[in-house]
Amino acid sequence: MNDFAKALTVTSSGLKAQATRLRHLAENISNADTPGYRRKLVSFETSFNANSGVSSVETGRVRLDRTTLERVYDPSHPMADETGYFDGSNVDLMIELGDAREAQRSYEANLKVFEQTRKMSSGLMDILRK
Fold first, then answer.
1. Pairing of β 40-41 and β 63-64
2. What is the C-alpha to C-alpha distance for residues 116 and 112, in angstroms, rounded to an integer?
3. In the predicted model, what is the mean pLDDT of the chain?
4. What is the per-residue pLDDT for 66?
């Protein structure tokens, strides 16, 4: 496997990992007001392919954030207990939006590296054909 192919493999794994992270962040944001919802956390792991000599990034298991759920007072809510409280979600929109911005920037950086590597590879192939 040549260096261009290795670079494309690494950046494409980064693109997939950040896309997965963005999907879970979007789910967290859309469920911020869902009673009992626990935010999803995505971790990254590196893997090494001994055959190709390439490391890549993969998403690990999705975990649920075990911090306590917000207690919301609304006696008219159908899920309220006898004291008028129910469990809200543990999603903090500011944290989710910050994480989403970070994931988006990382995705864009990986995409830029992928595009540059592809251009350099095709430019090299054009030179070799002449």
1. antiparallel
2. 6
3. 91
4. 95
According to the model, what pLDDT value does residue 1 have?
56
Token readout for 31 is 């469920």
**Residue where the block lists tokens 């469920």:** 31
Helix spans in the chain (H): 3-30, 93-129
Whether residue 125 has pLDDT greater than 80: no
Report the b/e string of 46-59 with b at 16+ CB within 10 A.
Answer: eeeeeeeebebbeb
Side-chain-side CA neighbours of residue 59 (13 Å) = 18
pLDDT in tens, 56-107: 888 999 999 999 999 999 999 999 999 999 999 999 999 999 999 999 999 9
Beta strand 85-87 with 63-64 is: unpaired
Identify whether the C-beta of residue 20 lies closer than 8 Å to the C-beta of residue 31: no
The first and second tokens of residue 116, run together, are 């540059």
Measured distance CA(83)–CA(41) in Å, rounded? 31
